[in-house]
Write a structure and sequence with these properties.
434 Repressor (Amino-terminal Domain), 8 strands
Amino acid sequence: MFDSLSDRLGSVFERLRGRGALTELDVRAAMREVRIALLEADVALSVVKQFIEDVTERAIGAEVTRSVTPGQQVVKIVNDALVELLGGEAEGLNIDVTPPAVIMMVGLQGSGKTTTTAKLAKLLTEKHAKKVMMASLDVARPAAQEQLRVLGEQVGVATLPIIAGQQPVAIAERARQAARLQGFDVVLLDTAGRLNVDVALMAEMAAIATATTPNEILLVVDALTGQDAVNVATAFKAEVALTGVVLTRMDGDARGGAALSMRAVTERPIKFAGTGEKLDALEAFDPQRVAGRILGMGDIVGLVERAAANIEQADAEKLAAKLAKGQFDMDDLRGQLRQMKAMGGLGALAGMIPGMGAAKKAMENGAIDDKVLGRMEAVICSMTLKERAKPEILTAKRKIRIAKGAGTTVQEVNKVIKMQMDMATAMKKLRKLGGMKGMASMMAKMGAGGAGGLAGMLGGGMPPGFDKFKR
């Protein structure tokens, strides 16, 4: 997400960082480019104008022009302004109330409302330990209620039994009553949509809200529609007491105009972002982390969360014990490759790690792809247990055998060996820095605008050897 905007802003700030001193003219020239980049990203004109005015005023002050690193100071100012534009602090759901908390999902037809309802139910169940019930109030779209029932089975969440002919308000009241009697913490109401905002739709939303007094009314909009999403949100806000917005298909939104305009125009927070088609692809929207990703600073918190969801605790403890001794063999490398695939592959990770711009561009240019991980694992699987534990015994004859077994070349085998050696060396450096605590301290400093990222700290612009693997 935000790829095109991130690339444009990255090139602007790269030039600023390369300057030893900045004049007011330098700052204003850079801000003109930022303005164009935001407009091309489909950010609302009024939002862009106010944003540029605020940033320029702060960036031409003494804090920047007299700074030892003026380029970094400008980036920090832009980052802080982006965080403010996106809402400042992440805002969670208001569900810590006398059960059941009622969450009403509204939006136009085709925005992904029903799927998002199921995603949110899954998130609340698994990450917040809430007992959730879903109810479909959509009696207009064929099979809409059946769709939610099927999704409920897939995510393991209860759905309100369907009664043919019952109208939306009556279904909503029955859902709230059933949730109260059966001890549910949260009830999600999936309302009907329309192709356009109309009087009948708004009257139905208002009647449901009056009958159920929801704690949250979340508008689901498609991020790919850009300013249309913001216009839809504005229209709903005028008729319904919205408490937040859920942006779907954020993973496909390279521009980011909807996200950057939504809070400023609607005065309602973005609470969640849909990041894929899978039912676990829903993330809490955090302005600070999103701003960091837009400016190429990565998203270390998001990376840690993704790792926690995909890495087995026993495997992590086993590897940590070996790293404490400065050890890293071929089996460890294979484990890391498998974890990278489980976490979304190279493309998903490159945008989350500071200093990984080189890896991301290499993938975009076709120099490397996620098939690299599978080919490398095949090479390691062709080795004997002894060879994996002691790669230093790999002679030319052994490499030929391994290459044949993996269906590749000796050169590819050498690249895997080189990567293992580089990573083993990196782990020894990490040990000298104070282990994982030392790394955490370094990452915290770099996240604040320092140089390099994890790869830079360990001596490379991207994971050692990945740039050598071609498609």
